[in-house]
Design goal:
- This protein has helices at 27-40, 70-73, 132-145, 156-170; strands at residues 5-6, 45-47, 57-61, 76-87, 91-98, 101-111, 113-119, 125-131, 180-181.
- It is of the alpha+beta class and 183 residues long.
- The protein contains 4 helices and 9 strands; from the N terminus they run βαββαβββββααβ.
- The chain has a single domain (5-181), classed as Peptide Deformylase (Alpha-Beta Complex).
């Protein structure tokens, strides 16, 4: 089932998400619905707060990048209760966008590598290191679980320049080709 994506200005995007356990009601179906929603919106990552649930769950599928980088194309992951363990010292800047902030793309500085602990769909625990684009996308989605958005990481001047666009998203005036839920 395709779910609406909550946009900038909705309160759930600013909440720190709560951990869940393996008995969370309808978890498998929720994960399946999140993938369907993300694919429908042409996204590569989606966190539960983006569909209105303040729980620590995120999904990523970098298949759209398989022609550019076959290794990225095979990267598909579900993370439950992720916990960031380390951020690498090396930083890199790249442009990001977000399904919850339609039409806005900005350069964001992030760690080139990370180490994260999480549970998969079957509640098997993993501690994994990611580098490059994988690390960037995981950090972006992880931020959603911490109540943070990529626009929080741009310079104050850029934020000021984005103010009217962000206000339009809050007012429901931004266009997206997928179903959204505004504030």
């Amino acid at each position: 089932m395709i779910l609406p994506i909550y946009t900038y200005g909705t309160a759930v995007l600013r909440k720190v998400a709560e951990p869940i356990d393996k008995d969370y009601p309808g978890l498998k179906e929720l994960i399946s619905n999140m993938y369907e929603t993300m694919y429908h919106a042409d996204g590569v990552g989606l966190a539960a707060p983006q569909i209105g649930k303040a729980i620590r769950l995120l999904i990523i599928d970098l298949a759209p990048f398989k022609e550019d980088d076959p290794e990225l194309g095979s990267f598909k992951i579900t993370m439950i209760n992720p916990e960031m363990l380390e951020f690498g010292d090396s930083k890199v800047t790249a442009e990001e966008g977000c399904l919850s902030i339609p039409g806005i793309y900005e350069s964001v500085m992030r760690s080139e590598s990370i180490k994260i602990k999480y549970f998969d769909e079957d509640f098997n625990q993993h501690i994994t290191e990611f580098e490059g684009y994988r690390a960037r996308v995981v950090q972006h989605e992880y931020d959603h679980l911490e109540g943070s958005l990529f626009t929080d990481k741009v310079s104050p001047i850029r934020r000021q320049l984005l103010k009217s666009k962000l206000t339009n998203i809050v007012k429901g005036k931004a266009s997206a080709r997928y179903k959204v839920k505004t504030a």
